[in-house]
Amino acid sequence: MKHTVFIMFLLSTFCFVANADEPRRHSLVGFVHGGYGYLPSDIPGLTDISGSYKNIFNDGGTWDAQLFYKYRILMLGLHYSGFTAGSELTNSSDRIFTHYIAPQAGMLFPVYRQFSLSFNGGLGCLWYLNNSVLYEKDRKVTGSAFALNLAARGIYNVTERIGISLQFMALGGSLQKTKVHYHDEDITVKMKGPTFNFNRLAVSLGLKFSF
User: Fold this and answer.
1) Which residues sit opposite 206 in a β-bridge?
2) Rounded to a whole number, what is the distance in angstroms from the first to the last CA of the chain?
3) Which residue of 63, 139, 147, 199 pairs with 126 in a disulfide if CB–CB is 3.0 to 4.6 A?
4) How far apart are CA 47 and CA 140, in angstroms?
5) Are 105 and 122 in contact (CB under 8 A)?
6) In whole angstroms, what is the distance from residue 24 CA to residue 81 CA?
7) CA 138, CA 93: separation in Å to the nearest integer?
8) Rounded to whole angstroms, what are the CA distances from 11 to 15, 16, 78, 144, 177?
9) Cα separation of 94 and 140, whole Å?
10) 10 Å Cβ neighbour count for 167?
C-alpha cells in the first residue's frame, strides 16, 4: 500500500512538472495600438474641395484594439480601429472620423527567442463622420460601407503575458452615398460613376496582452 501511494505521488509530481513547462494551448490575446494613418484618396463631404485643403486630411492619427481567442497558433476575434484628421479655414472647419469594426481570423506564432509574428484579416463595417462648421452653422456628413482589413505585427515579448507590438494595417472600402445634415435639412449625396474608394494605411506601436 505504501509503495502504491509513493508511486502515485511520483506520477502526480511528474505530470505537474511536465504541464508547467508546456506552453499554453488556449489563451486570450489582446492588442492596443496608436500611431499614424494615411488616406491615399479624396475625402467626401469637405467644406472646401481645393487641392491644398483636401490634402491636409490624408494624414491623421489612428488607434485600434483587438481581442482574440487563441488555440495553438490560430486566432479568432474582433477588431476595432479609428482615424481622425482636421483643419479649418476662415469660414469653415472640418473634423473627420472613421470607425471600423470586424470579426477577425489570424495567426500568432514565435519566430526567434522572444520575437513573434502575427497576421489577421476580416470583413466588417466602416462608418464615416465629418463634424464640420460652415458659416457658423453646424454641418454633419455621415456614411457607411463594408470594408476589408489586413494587419501584420512584429512582437517583442517582454514577459509571457506582455509584449511590445509594431503593427502595419491596410483597410479598404467603398462609399456609395453620404448624408449631409445642414440648416436642419438632410440631403443624400450619391457618388457619380464608380463608388468612392475609401482606403487607409496605418503604422502604429502598442502593447500585446495574453491572459
Assistant:
1) 33, 165
2) 42
3) 147
4) 10
5) yes
6) 28
7) 10
8) 6, 9, 41, 60, 67
9) 9
10) 24
How far is Cα 106 from Cα 139, in angstroms, rounded to an integer?
40
Whole-prediction pTM: 0.84
The contacts of residue 51 (CB under 8 Å, 6+ apart) are none
Listed in sequence order, the residues at least 6 apart from 68 whose beta carbon sits closer than 8 Å to its beta carbon are 28, 29, 30, 75, 76, 77, 104, 106, 108, 120
Annotate 115-171 with DSSP letters as a single string: EEEEEEEEEEEEEEEEEEEETTEEEEEEEEEEEEEEEEEEEEESSSSEEEEEEEEEE
What pLDDT is recorded for position 183? Answer: 87
Q: Decide: 118 and 110 in contact? Cβ < 8 Å.
A: no
| pLDDT at site 12 | 45
Most confident residue range from 57-61, 101-105, 136-140, 186-190: 101-105
Higher pLDDT, 24 or 200: 200
